[in-house]
């Protein structure tokens, strides 16, 4: 277990180097997890190991407030999360462009990092990223409302305690997760910071120069966002996974691997 100190927070980081050591020129792939109910462990189910076995230098980290990273009371706006990622890359001494893989809200962090710091990103993979067309901000409103309802539920029903009382040691991990969610919603500025979200414009997307792979579930409510990204990003491959919903990382890791690994190899050469 290792940690990297960035301004205002201590980030928990794991790094998977291919067996036998990293090959010079091998791609560095940074995995960015989603919001609230997610952390770096979500990528261990089916992506981190196969990426490392394929030759990539894989970096996973817990975003601020999540997993084993510290939970400051403020700093959960999208620019703060982007700044954390940029500082993490510097703290790890990564001095060449990396490939960002962002799941759900982590896709927003990865996309905005690409928009603000294009020189740091060699390639971008968006797994059902929660973006929204610039003329339709309904998703942002829905997310704010859902988060508010969840905050009230955690404040008054205490699901972490219910898990612990009902299941004891057998569901301790679920209880810890529920406690983390409750603390994020009710003991930090995260809810207020969500009000700073705004759609990315088509003009901004047209300025992205790195290749992008967008993978969405056929039945995901965010599929229109994937189509919007594919229309306006200059070099974007959109893949729709049949039968899957927003939780494609949980439901469809084999399908994601079958798309992601060839896409990465085609853009990084024999090192991967």
Structural features, described:
By secondary structure, the chain is of the alpha/beta class. It folds into two domains: 2-137 and 201-271, Alpha/Beta hydrolase fold, catalytic domain (Rossmann fold); 139-197. It is 44% helix and 18% strand. An eight-stranded mixed sheet has the order 1-2-4-3-5-6-7-8, sandwiched between helices. The protein is globular, with a radius of gyration of 18 Å. The two termini are 26 Å apart.
Number of alpha- plus pi-helical segments? 12
Outline the low-pLDDT stretches.
157-168
Biggest beta sheet attributes: 8 strands, mixed
In one word, what is the shape?
A: globular
Number of domains: 2
Condensed summary:
Helices cover 44% and strands 18% of the residues. With 272 residues, the protein is α/β, with parallel strands linked by helices. Strand 1 and strand 2 form a beta hairpin.
């Amino acid at each position: 277990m290792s940690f990297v100190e960035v301004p205002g927070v201590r980030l928990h980081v794991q790094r998977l180097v291919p067996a036998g050591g990293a090959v010079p020129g091998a791609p560095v792939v940074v995995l960015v997890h989603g919001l609230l109910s997610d952390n770096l462990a979500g990528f261990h189910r089916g992506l981190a190991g196969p990426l490392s076995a394929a030759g990539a230098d894989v970096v996973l980290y817990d975003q601020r407030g999540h997993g084993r990273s510290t939970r400051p009371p403020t700093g959960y706006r999208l620019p703060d999360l982007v700044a954390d990622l940029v500082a993490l890359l510097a703290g790890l001494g990564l001095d060449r462009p990396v490939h960002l893989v962002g799941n759900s809200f982590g896709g927003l962090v990865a996309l905005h990092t690409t928009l603000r710091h294009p020189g740091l990103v060699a390639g971008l993979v968006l797994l059902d990223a929660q973006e929204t067309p610039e003329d339709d901000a309904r998703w942002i409103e829905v997310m704010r409302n859902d988060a508010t309802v969840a905050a009230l539920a955690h404040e008054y029903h205490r699901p972490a305690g219910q898990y612990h009382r009902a299941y004891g040691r057998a569901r301790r991990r679920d209880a810890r997760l529920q406690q983390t969610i409750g603390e994020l919603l009710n003991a930090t500025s995260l809810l207020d910071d969500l009000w700073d979200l705004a759609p990315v414009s088509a003009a901004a997307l047209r300025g992205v120069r790195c290749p992008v792979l967008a993978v969405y579930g056929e039945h995901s409510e965010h599929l229109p966002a994937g189509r919007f990204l594919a229309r306006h990003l200059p070099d974007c491959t959109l893949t729709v996974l049949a039968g899957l919903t927003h939780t494609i990382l949980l439901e469809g890791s084999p399908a994601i691997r079958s798309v992601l690994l060839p896409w990465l190899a085609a853009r990084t050469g024999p090192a991967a």
